[in-house]
């Protein structure tokens, strides 16, 4: 059985989602569960044990703040750390992120090579590459 961390990745842009998935699984060594929408991500929450959720907060279909509030209100998902990956990362102050109960915000465009280390640091995970 793998000891790799499992990350739910929610991004509505398929090209960005694919780059993130490859980056996080190949470089980060994590098990990545991709989702194109909050609805699809919600379905994964019911079937997967997750160590983190990485999501873009900009979608035309649903408000990310309401989705985050729903996760944080549910005893089964409230302890899962959430990171935003967004073009609007600079809009968020540390206080705003704390109020949203989000660990951090990463700016798009991102550096695929350093992204896993950045995510590990924000989540407080050991940032070394996993051993085979």
Automatic annotation (TrEMBL):
Where are the 4-aspartylphosphate residues found in this chain? 56
Q: Does the keyword Secreted apply?
A: no
Q: Where is the Response regulatory domain?
A: 6-123
**Pfam families recorded:** Response_reg
InterPro entries given in the database record: Bact_response_regulator, CheY-like_superfamily, Sig_transdc_resp-reg_receiver
Keywords recorded for this protein, A-Z? Phosphoprotein
The question of whether Phosphoprotein is a record keyword is answered with yes
Protein name as it appears in the record:
Response regulator
Q: Which organism is it from?
A: Floridaenema fluviatile BLCC-F154
């Amino acid at each position: 059985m793998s000891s790799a961390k499992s990350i739910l990745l929610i991004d509505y842009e398929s090209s960005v989602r694919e780059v993130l998935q490859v980056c996080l699984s190949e470089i980060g060594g994590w098990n990545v569960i991709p989702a194109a929408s909050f609805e699809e991500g919600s379905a994964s929450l019911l079937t997967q044990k997750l160590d983190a959720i990485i999501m873009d907060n900009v979608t035309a279909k649903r408000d990310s703040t309401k989705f985050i509030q729903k996760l944080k209100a549910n005893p089964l998902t409230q302890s899962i750390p959430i990171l935003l990956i967004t073009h609007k990362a600079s809009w968020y102050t540390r206080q705003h992120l704390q109020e949203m109960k989000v660990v951090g915000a990463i700016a798009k465009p991102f550096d695929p090579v350093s992204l896993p280390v950045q995510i590990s640091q924000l989540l407080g995970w050991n940032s070394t590459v996993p051993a085979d």
